[in-house]
User: What shape does this take?
Amino acid sequence: MSTHRVPWTHGKWTTPPMESQEEGGRLLVTAREGSDAWRETYYGFVHDDEHALLTDWARDEAVEVSFTARFEAQFDQAGILVRASDRHWVKTGVEFSDGAPQLGAVVTDGRSDWSVAPVPEWLDREVTLRVSRVRDSLIIRARVDDDAPRLVRVVPMDVDLPLQAGPYCCSPTRSGLTVEFHEWRLTEPDGGLH
Assistant: This one.
């Protein structure tokens, strides 16, 4: 398959954001205060009101999303959401936590987990996330600007499970987070892990 850009009008919101508008081919999304995606672990609560623009996602395909955002408040976040159901999903991207941007992923299979690594040098720069669906796995990679992509995580995923994927953002602790999504693409998956 060749790379093709997904039109912003092609997806459907899991929860509509406060505002979204297309401008010069980009999508500007303003998150609602209190929006998030999380299930139970440690905090004990369930949040299922993230702003994710999703479309059906085929096997042996990769989804890429590029964005910039001015992260300022605890848990401001943006990236890619992959969803099978409200109890089975993966979000990956940049999340502002403990005073710095963190690159990470949350894998939810009934309950959520969380892994992060600080990337303070990524603040206010263009981030590209890429998730490849290969055999029984999701391979998550990320890069900033034109740097080489780095491996974020390998996630087990049932090869026959119907999935949807696309850009997402959340703002659990404040109002006013606006994410500028530059592109949403479907393309060939990674040829391998290494």
About this structure: The first strand starts at residue 4 and ends at 5.
